[in-house]
Amino acid sequence: MQTSIYLATSLDGFIARADGAIDWLPSGDDPGEDYGYQAFFASVDVLVMGRATYDLVRGFATWPYDDKPVVVLTQRPLTIPAELAHSVTVMAGAPQELVERLAARGLRHAYIDGGQTIQRFLAAGLIQRMILTRVPVLLGHGLPLFGSLPAERWWQHVATRSYANGLVQSEYVATVASGNL
């Protein structure tokens, strides 16, 4: 199963303020530019997110994932509202176990979202593709995208795109071998 992340960070590597707020992200006022998100989202057949990300997204005016299957990873009890019960499920477990369970369901490409969830999947060596968009702001502190890893991981640069509003998006794929550039 392929696993990918598509995420925005501040220049200093934070994905949210310390309290989880993402009010610093661009508002998406340009309806003609989605930064490749729709094409990426169409390529995945399941979204795996952590509980904090789910709680944040539930606060949005509308559920942004339509009928795409969503798996919320949590150890705490979580009741899924009736209007989402057809597409949202709750799971717990180690990343490798979760990938195996999803693959057994016939799913082929998972979008991994949420800081702690991404860090756990990276630490397990289970992310193959990263699309990272840098927002030109320094937050100074907040929730970091990356945490400690058991070993270094090397990535191959695929492409970088820059946008008129200052956003810079880079795509990477995991390399099999590590070493110097």
Automatic annotation (TrEMBL):
<dbReference type="InterPro" id="IPR002734">
    <property type="entry name" value="RibDG_C"/>
</dbReference>
<dbReference type="GO" id="GO:0009231">
    <property type="term" value="P:riboflavin biosynthetic process"/>
</dbReference>
<protein>
    <submittedName>
        <fullName>Deaminase</fullName>
    </submittedName>
</protein>
<dbReference type="InterPro" id="IPR050765">
    <property type="entry name" value="Riboflavin_Biosynth_HTPR"/>
</dbReference>
<feature type="domain" description="Bacterial bifunctional deaminase-reductase C-terminal">
    <location>
        <begin position="7"/>
        <end position="168"/>
    </location>
</feature>
<dbReference type="GO" id="GO:0008703">
    <property type="term" value="F:5-amino-6-(5-phosphoribosylamino)uracil reductase activity"/>
</dbReference>
<dbReference type="Pfam" id="PF01872">
    <property type="entry name" value="RibD_C"/>
</dbReference>
<dbReference type="InterPro" id="IPR024072">
    <property type="entry name" value="DHFR-like_dom_sf"/>
</dbReference>
